[in-house]
Amino acid sequence: MKNILLKIEYQGTRYKGWQIQPKVITVEETIATVLQRICQCKVLLKASSRTDAGVHARGQVATVLIPEHIPLQRLFFSLNSLLPDDISVLDAVQVPAGFSARKDNRGKRYIYQILNAPVGKALYHDFYHWVRAPLDIEQIQEGCRCFEGTHNFSAFRGKGCQQVVTVKTIQKIGLTIERMSGFSTIRISLEGNGFLKNMVRIIAGSLIDIGKGRLDVGVLSRALTSGKREEAGSTAPAKGLILDEVFFNPDPFLDCESLDRVAL
After folding, report:
1. Looking at 193-263, which runs of residues are DSSP E strands?
2. Which of 96, 146, 171, 256 lies most in the core, judged by the most C-beta atoms within 10 Å?
3. Segment 151-162, tens digit of pLDDT
4. Rounded to the nearest 5°, which phi and psi values hold at 223?
């Protein structure tokens, strides 16, 4: 068997998250079913993270062991021809046997997308959280600065989070604003060494609450200090969240000389 690292893009709208669960459709199960059809054996996908129901991905990564005799190119094109239209494999590379998408990554980037408009827009519906009330961008920018650096993010994790280590480092957080006729889009980008369950959605929800004037910026510092969930803001909807990129050093997808690979 050989260990293959896949880079996967998906629209999470109709899936109950990444992880296989009974009686519901998930991204992992959908990909595994197609892989088993190609490989004619049971396969196990091991992803960098388990995105929640409705969350999208542009750069999810997962390893899978496949029979040695199956060419990587055949696997790549077969996967993309058999998967549904809302899941794509963007890249595939053979990695060492012990390589782990979860343990060997050096961090991730998430993007949260907001549509700020008096009325909703059909073409933005599945990928943006619509906020009707005008948002104070300066206040949101000030709030973003509170999250930079290393903090205990206990107040910004969802119910049922099982991670023991709640101290995480946010290396970069920033806003991209596009203003168009009658509406704006806001993208919150966060790069960090790790994230707790619902952490990005709670950060985004807290920043939106600040932008609406429901919370003052000082709430964020108090919540980071106290670790109490009730002192942070609301949890933003899943549909605005995208797992944008998973970082490795060195990056297996760029190491063309030593590893067998294929890419679009």
Report:
1. 241-247, 261-263
2. 146
3. 999 999 988 887
4. -70, -40
184 pLDDT more than 50:
yes
Exactly one of 52, 91, 104, 209 is catalytic; which is it? 52
Look up tokens 């991204």; give the residue. Answer: 27
How far apart are the C-alpha atoms of 113 and 220, rounded to whole Å?
Answer: 20
| Topology, domain 2-104 | Alpha-Beta Plaits (3.30.70)
Q: Within the chain, which residue ranges are assigned CATH 3.30.70.660? A: 107-244
Domain(s) labelled CATH 3.30.70.580 in the chain stretch across 2-104
User: Using CA atoms, how far apart are residues 18 and 56, in angstroms rounded to an integer?
Assistant: 10
**End-to-end CA distance of the chain, in Å?**
24
What CATH number labels 107-244? 3.30.70.660
Question: Which residue in this structure is represented by tokens 């997962």?
Answer: 62
Number of C-beta neighbours around residue 82 at 10 A: 13
Contacts of 146 (CB under 8 A, 6+ apart): 217, 220, 221, 224
Least confident of 32-46, 64-78, 249-263: 249-263
**Does the active-site annotation cover 244?**
no
Mean pLDDT of the chain: 94
* 229-262 pLDDT, tens digit each: 999 999 999 999 999 999 999 999 987 554 455 6
What does the pLDDT average to over 180-186?
A: 93
pTM: 0.94
Using CA atoms, how far residue 21 sits from 11, 27, 199, in Å, is 18, 10, 22
Please tell me the distance from the alpha carbon of residue 196 to that of residue 157, in angstroms, as a whole number.
Answer: 6
Integer Cα distance of 198 and 237 in angstroms: 10
Q: How far apart are CA 226 and CA 161, in angstroms?
A: 17
